[in-house]
Amino acid sequence: MTQSTNPALPREPAPVTVRIDRWLTVLPPDAWPVGFPKTGAVWRRDVFAVADAWRAGEASPRQLLSAVLMWGYGPIGYGPWRAARSLEADPEGKRVAYALADLRVPELDEDVLRTAYRRLRDPKESRLPRLGPAMVTKLLYFAGYRRGGAPGSAAGAVAAGTVAAAAAVAPGAAVAGHLQPLILDSVVARRLPAEAGVRRESGWVSEEWLAYLRWAADQAHRRGVEPDEVEMAVAQGQQPAGDAPARVVADTR
Fold it and tell me: How far apart are CA 10 and CA 17, in angstroms?
């Protein structure tokens, strides 16, 4: 029997379309992530594989940032230009390395997440031009997320990219009270219920992001799913899987 190699994470609807030819012309050679797909279809697992390599010391902070920016901007025309401005401001990757240094630990706590977020938003520390709060949360998500809530469990399954490997860290293992860094952008913010603690559609302070992470962790634990399944369900205007009521606010655009 042929084994399925569906690269999608649970709730991930489709890959992000990336104009690889355009990105190749603007990214410095040292910032291109080794092994990154050049087909133009980029899944979350592809970016997590770069994050895995970064944690193992086999990819640079600039390569991780580039992978996140390509996935984060997708087909948006100004994406490569903005990414180039961010990378130019940190030619050796020291500012990004400083911001992400504490995310290499097996399990994260609120203080680590708060510090990383604040560093990336503080111009005196690690803030980069054209790297707004939404993209900051995408970088922290890929750099810090631990699938299954178990130390070291995310990297192997993500890098393997197979259903069998993913089953080893199957959704349902989320740990009560264990926060995972998640993406917060204007789409997610607009669709969150009031109890998630996000008061605006952009420009979030660290405490708003952490309040959202606590809410998502609780939703995930009560449903037996991964926290990023909650994020993806909210972004799609859907209810997370499970028995508990989602109370997701529908987009009214």
Answer: 19
